[in-house]
Amino acid sequence: MNALEFIRAYLPLLIPLLLLQLGLQIFSLVDLVRREHTKGPKWLWAIVIILGEMLGPIVYLLFGREE
Fold this sequence. Notes:
Blueprint: H1 3-34, H2 42-51, H3 55-64
Helix pairs in contact: 1-2, 1-3, 2-3
């Protein structure tokens, strides 16, 4: 299986995951900007959200927000 066949075979599986990741990142970043207080500095949470791929936004949503 060459690279093009590999991409064609797995692209239908990757697109929903990429859209989910992008949606989580956008939602988390908007929430971070709108929230007055977080547990820790906002710049650090922004880095976690952006560089953490799928796990970063989930970590922020579970542990970073002050209710």
